[in-house]
Amino acid sequence: MKKVILISWVVLFLMILFYLFFERNAHYKYGQDFKRYLKDIHGISENDLPDQAFIIVIPLASCTPCINDLIFNILSCATNKELIFLFVGESFDEDIVDKVRIIETIQSHVYWDVEDKLMYYETNIGSPTFLLMKNKEFYNKTELNNDTFNQLAEKYDF
Predict the structure, then answer these.
(1) What is the mean predicted confidence (pLDDT) over 12-27?
(2) Most buried one in 13, 26, 44, 108, CB count within 10 A?
(3) Would residue 140 be called left, alpha or beta, if left means φ above 0 and alpha means ψ between -120 and 50 degrees?
(4) Span between the terminal Cα atoms of the chain, in Å
């Protein structure tokens, strides 16, 4: 009986490790809908995107202090050519608007969805999000805050 319980715990532990490992490197479940969103709203087709890109989606209507801090942090690497910024919705916070304008002036890959049409697509994005795109597929959907942004910036060197 004890042996069966021990084996059950070991199997459960291995399943959790397997899930955690593959979840971090997993395909983005809503990748096809996100591609459709990029094409329909921004006119960006799969072929317009490089083999590897880092996409940062920022819904401006989310937590204002969080967005403000994150955008300030993003300014440190906004000139990286592989970064693609998607700003969704609007913000009435002048600090955020000013920082976004700075990003627009130094970064060529900035796209706007002022009407928040992202919500009409099944993307599971409601807060600042990072997506890694490799070979026309999306991976590694990560919700962004200052800590996760810094970790990703260090990991992918942007």
Answers:
(1) 57
(2) 44
(3) left
(4) 53
Q: How far apart are CA 124 and CA 136, in angstroms?
A: 19
pLDDT given at position 43? 95
Name the nearest CA neighbour of 86 among 34, 28, 124.
34
CB 125, CB 118: distance < 8 Å: yes
C-alpha dihedral, 114 to 118 to 124 to 129, nearest 10°:
-40
The strand pairing partners of 54, in sequence order, are: 83, 132
Model pLDDT, residue 18 = 52
49-77 pLDDT, tens digit per residue, is 888 889 999 999 888 888 888 988 888 77
Is 125 in contact with 57 (CB distance < 8 Å)? yes
Site of tokens 């992918």: 156
Q: Do 139 and 60 contact (CB within 8 A), yes or no?
A: no
User: Apex CA 66: angle with CA 63 and CA 68, to 5°?
Assistant: 105
111 band by pLDDT with thresholds 50, 70 and 90? very high
